[in-house]
Amino acid sequence: METIDNLLQGFATALTPVNLLYALLGVAVGTAIGVLPGIGPAMAVALLLPITYGLDPVGAFIMFAGIYYGGMYGGSTTAILINTPGEAASVITAVEGNKMAKRGRAAQALATAAIGSFVAGTIGTLMLVFLAPVMVGLALTFGAAEYFAVMLLAFVAACSVLGSSRVRGFASLGIGLAIGLIGLDPTTGQSRLSYGIPQLADGIDVVIVAVGIFAVGEALWVASRLRRTPAEVIPVGRVWMGREDWKRSWKPWLRGSFIGFPFGALPAGGSELPTFLSYMLERRLSKHRAEFGSGAIEGVAGPEATNNSSAAGVLVPMLTLGLPTTAVSAVMLTAFQQYGLQPGPLLFEREPELVWGLIASLFIGNTMLLALNLPLAPMWARLLHIPRPYLYAGILFFASLGMYAVNASPLDLVLLLLLGGLGFMMRRFGLPVIPVIIGTILGPMAELQLRRALQISDGDLAGLVTSPLTIGVYAIVAVLLLWPMVRFLRGRRRPAAPVSAGERTGEEAAG
């Protein structure tokens, strides 16, 4: 009952005219950003971080949440119309969605994506409402050892799941941890990795790291690879669905809602894996298997619902534990620190207006997105005609202007460009960028909790394993680290299949 009361108070906060305007602005910008290939919600939030320094925290986070949900909506438009996902989570949508568009069913594909996103977003937000207080109660029992163990799990999971290899993932995490070490040691006061530059005594602002790695690095990378001519876009008429389309879509929407949320709440669970699992499940359960590969509507409805449900799940560990599991949550965690707030169980006690206003705004933003996406889909499609040089030049300009306006420091611009170059090189050599942000944000926090745990145990390492929770978390870490080695050894020990006499005779005859 207390949860319902808190949610109603959140609606009272979110339904004020100013916050409704922020929500509308967020979903509109998020959808437009999601439509543009190569520009995701993480980059949009990163670009807006410097601009929102003077805004009220509640309004700023309502706008960021709108951008997040809007970006997940908009990514399906490019996936369906030009076979170029605007977001990584929309890759699976392109498999069947673009085939539907080429068959003249672009309107139906966009409609099932939009309605499915609304249904799954609403169900996922409801699960967030009732699960978040449970997680807060659990987090209040955490000590220094438990927090360090969970952060270590986040490090290992991010490096194990993201990127093309674990080595690259851990290399990326190492870069983030090194950036997080820059500045004065909080315990001894000694300077670390500042190279005698006084401006680095407080470390590198995480906002600079986020904007440099995501916005500048991504803009440089995409601009260096994409063509300068607009993509060929399939025309879109009135977005609608027939009775048969509704009949084939509603079950995938519901299944996708319950598949995506748990994966979003896991460290580095993300949305790519659950959308793939949803696609495979719908392909197995569908009565129209023959259509898969040529434009099955279930292959759009299920993955899109999964995608948006996982977006709500991502907010659970970020708000209750302060752990980012995706690029957007990492940048939003940066925004919390920008306002002097630390996500975690105490945030629900100290800033209930902010937390519950943010959660309530997800329901409002979700409704706004449905109203925007169904009638305005043809207009969003026109954004795909923007020339790429103008688009990415504008991103670089506004990123640089926003960072310089914060402190009016030329060093911030130099750091921004250096980090943008680093982000470009990481993409060039296949290093995932999310572990860098996770390492930069969580690295100092993990160091602080590790020192506290060792101080409590008087330097005894056994003090890091003080409860069943820590033992369980370290067991999961061990499995994540050792499982690839076990699979490799099992593959080497597996004997080769015997060759039959008939096959041997055939081979000798061929020879």
UniProtKB/TrEMBL annotation:
Q: Which residue spans traverse the membrane?
A: 20-39, 45-69, 109-132, 138-160, 167-184, 204-223, 311-333, 354-377, 389-406, 413-441, 461-483
- Keyword line: Membrane, Transmembrane, Transmembrane helix
Q: Which domain of life is it from?
A: Bacteria
Q: What Pfam families does its record include?
A: TctA
Where the record annotates domain DUF112, the positions are 20-438
Name used for this protein in its record: Tripartite tricarboxylate transporter TctA
Q: Which organism is it from?
A: Marinitenerispora sediminis
